Amino acid sequence: MSATAPTASLGNPQSTKPAPSTAQATPDHLYLVVVGHVDHGKSTLIGRLLFDTNSVPDGKKERIESACKAEGMEFEYAFLMDALLEEQAQNITMDTTRVPFRTPRRQFTIIDAPGHKEFLKNMITGAASADAAILLVDAHEGLREQTRRHGYLLSLLGLKQVVVAVNKMDLVDYDEKIFARIRAELTEFLGKLHVTAAHFVPIAAKHGEGLLTVSPRTPWYRGPALLEALEQFRATPPIAGAPLRLTVQDIYRFDARRIVAGLVEAGSVSVGDPIEFHPGGKRSRVKTIESWPTSDFRGPVGAGLPVAITLEDELFVERGQVGAPPQAVPVEARDFTARVFWLHAEPLRVGDTLPLRLGTQQADARLVAVSRVLDAVTLDASQAPASEVKRHEVAELRLRVRRPIAFDAGGKIPALGRFVLMRGRRIAGGGVIDSAVREDAGRDDTLPVTPASRTTLLGHRGAVIWLTGLSGAGKSTLSTALEQRLFRAGILPAIVDGDVLRAGLCKGLGFSDTDRKENIRRAAEAALLLADAGAVVITALISPFRADRQLVAELCRVRGVPFAEVFVNAPLAECERRDVKQLYARARAGEIPKFTGIDSPYEAPLAPALELRTDLEPVEQSLEKLFALAAGLARETGTPFADSGADI
Amino acid sequence: MSHLDELESHSIYLLREAYHAFGKVGMLWSMGKDSNVLLWLAKKAFAGHIPVPVIHVDTTYEFPEMLEFRAWAQKHYGLELIVHINEAARARGIGYETTDPVTVTHELKSVALQQVLGIHQFDALITGIRRDEDSTRAKERYFSPRNAEFEWDYKDQPPEFWNHFTTEVGPGEHVRVQPLLDWTEIDIWRYCDREKIPLPGMYFARHGRRFRSLGCMPITKDVPSTATTIDEIIEELKVTRTSERAGRAQDHHERNAMQKLRAKGFM
CB contacts < 8 Å between A and B, how many? Predict the structure, then answer.
């Protein structure tokens, strides 16, 4: 074996045909879900479709044939789909399967969603990504519970292209009246859900009747065969004319640049476009589109495509934000109404707080109220006010998230209007936002105002960020910059500044060790009052003594307020060089006694939450670290809240 | 947007989600066509970088030509490559010469993988498996959790929809991230053609035979073929009714061999 590049073994000879023909070879690939009641024949139908379109590998049919014979049973087409041992043993499909097949006219991928009641999660997992659905009904049994439930979920998932296959016509002697009765009943049910079936097709899947061609045994039927009906459907097109929605997945810093990576959910983006990021509303312009292996691509990058951009301004953009054109931004709100389906064994109860994920945003959401629980089978709404949503139920309810999220309600841009709720590590339910509710937090709380209710109101909790360091190290500069940054991120900031304190609250205190200690104590008490009210307090005091700062940390701990000590560090020589207020010069001249660093010691923190070397890094970089710390403390979900469930 | 664009887009989305969600991510690489597509997609997802280590579980039964490709590609892509062999099993004499292929596959691939995971503490592994390869793979999730014993709980898989996945793991657990699940064999070839992705030469016919799927030397058979270009391979695949992994002996050693292997940690 040679150690050099093996060009001889390098495959992929250059194709002789032009590249675009590959795109033409796979137009309009259709993802298809098959739903319906258990035992109405879904797996059999799919197995038969695969077999009749020559999509089954050689030998597979023979293997199943001999297996069936060994068990003394009739040949079972469903076994073509049921891969797992248990499935074949119990004759039940257990999990979502995807199988590709093609007709001369187009390429399909079937998503087999099992109908067994406890496996509804798999059906939704499958149906949520489909373009079209076959709703299967047993002619002999008629509409059953899951026929209706699945119908409802199709409407909730936004699937509008539906064909109904009335199966097992052989068991009812191909009776037109039975077919017509089922069609009438289902048309009425689906009509209430604003779903219109494109066709009702009589079939007998087991015998392959009505699939590729209409069965001669149903001469009264005038419509297309099932496959013909499917060929008429279209792959879900991206919504036309929608404004840009770029969901940010991550920020990459492989080199000096900050690359914003995400998905264009709607609209398009080009170099030079103004772009605003929500929640927050920070604005910039697209500087470059990063692409590989090509470069210098200027766009547009359209809906459905991944994108990576850099911005003209150094913005703190983070995962979860949505890029949009300034003139057409998404809604930012904390309260909204939604329709939710629930999959978890443990019910969703009023007062529960669960992580909500929408796009790449995540925020804790509290179930404020359930307006009604719908019986997905009868479509009747519950009469009594509900306090919980049980597994497999569908409900209209109201949620409140701890901090504003960006979304598009009412199905305008589907990807930006649907969310999932987590319980533990699992997706426990999904929902579609109907509309934002005007912010009137607190109205439904008859309880006294507590730290928890303040947190609910503000969307974050209070905290103390204690900046310590020499005069001239950059504390004031950073505190003002952090205040602005927090404010723009929707976090209420407050500053406790040493100079301001000494002019007011601490008037009369000198610079003796005792006075300094009292000065710090008062600053801490002032900071705690503000933090109790919900603000993220930034203190900017030299606070040179370790023992004094420890006292502050202890006060915060006792009061249950998150505290972080930040060492704003620049060497004395650098501070003295800066000497913005000419204090060092005056101290050197003997005009200011006991000046920290000159004739009074500064005790550096031993284990600060953060150390910022303002002499080594630009202020933007320090600010970024500081903001991450402050926002993290403010939005940490670890605190026990009165209304949170035990599960998070 | 073409179907290939859709597939590419979703795979890139999944790669980025995995990279964001997990602390230590590794990417499995067998030098086969699917895992070369995976490398390519990673380059696109991360603006020309492959920011995670690439793992080759070396069974010591690799085709020399594949090892040659490995060395070439490592340099070409600038890969941070981890090569791991289950030396203990080889020392015990586990090998195709003495042992059945299911046991060997389990020892030299699944157990070896478990060892790599232990050494490097990965909490997510990106794999190149596809649903159309095998009917048990067809039932996989994009983000598929494995417990500390490496087992796949296929009876109770987490729901996964609207681009939301299982992104948290418990101690000792890991998640298999599978960005190519929706791709078919033909999709892979069309994409290799469109993007001009470098591949090992063994996929192309020589002397009337080619490899459709590549694994360990003693248990991987080539198939009769005259396809020397991707166009010809695609034409061949359109009419074939033999399954892609028909030449991989361990899958067919006993009934449901793949399910048993996969439940215990095989890819």
Answer: 209
